[in-house]
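Quiz preparation item.
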């Protein structure tokens, strides 16, 4: 068998290699910690640990920088990275986008934490800016639900309940019930740090940097950009409006 035909037959088995993210579509890559319930059990405080959150913020920053993203959002052990509509890295190959984002997240977290950790990744695709806003509002709503459940569960656990008993005590209970449960145990959920309840957002912001032109002997200003980290995100409609502005800014840069 000729080497070229043999290679061609083998490469034909790479049946997903030709998949591309749709052109001009909004894409979000969401990385999620694999097996993090067990991984975090003896390493970090429950229900939330500020050091763990800093590690996840490092992951979000690395993804935003290396993948040339427009916005990154992290809550719990996941990061959602919004890619610009004209994103062209890796020829928009789905395999590359998903595998490399998971690899980068794993490496960034392991470097920050000092322990081996794995992330998986998936791609979400939307055709309209409204879809993007809805996506991130969905993830923020998930952050709020998980934060409330986590605070209730670990408050009961630290109060002496076992895992099964604490889970059963919360099963099917309303949000009002959970808020009252915490209040009776001295926890005002509304005063829990915002990054626990709403997540943290990262995006590029423009600023002017002052410098000096030695040739003309003049002070000059140069346009630069840097990553802004917001741990006090707004919620619901206000959050949606902020996201819409970020998307509009991204669209203007493409024009």
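Solution:
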């Amino acid at each position: 068998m000729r080497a070229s035909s043999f290679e061609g037959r083998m490469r034909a088995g790479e049946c997903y290699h030709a998949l591309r993210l749709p052109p001009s579509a909004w894409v979000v890559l969401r990385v999620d910690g694999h097996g993090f319930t067990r991984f975090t059990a003896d390493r970090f405080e429950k229900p939330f640990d500020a050091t763990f959150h800093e590690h996840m913020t490092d992951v979000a920053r690395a993804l935003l920088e290396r993948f040339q993203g427009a916005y990154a959002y992290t809550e719990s052990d996941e990061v959602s990275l919004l890619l610009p509509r004209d994103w062209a890295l890796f020829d928009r190959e789905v395999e590359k986008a998903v595998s490399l984002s998971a690899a980068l997240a794993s490496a960034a977290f392991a470097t920050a934490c000092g322990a081996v950790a794995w992330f998986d990744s998936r791609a979400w695709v939307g055709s309209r800016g409204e879809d993007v806003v809805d996506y991130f509002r969905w993830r923020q709503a998930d952050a709020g639900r998980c934060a409330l459940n986590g605070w209730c569960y670990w408050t009961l656990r630290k109060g002496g309940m076992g895992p099964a008993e604490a889970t059963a005590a919360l099963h099917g209970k309303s949000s009002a019930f959970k808020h009252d449960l915490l209040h009776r145990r001295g926890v005002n959920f509304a005063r829990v740090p915002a990054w626990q309840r709403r997540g943290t957002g990262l995006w590029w912001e423009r600023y002017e940097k002052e410098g000096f032109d030695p040739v003309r002997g003049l002070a000059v200003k140069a346009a630069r950009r840097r990553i802004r980290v917001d741990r006090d995100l707004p919620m619901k409609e206000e959050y949606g409006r902020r996201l819409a502005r970020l998307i509009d800014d991204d669209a203007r840069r493409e024009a």
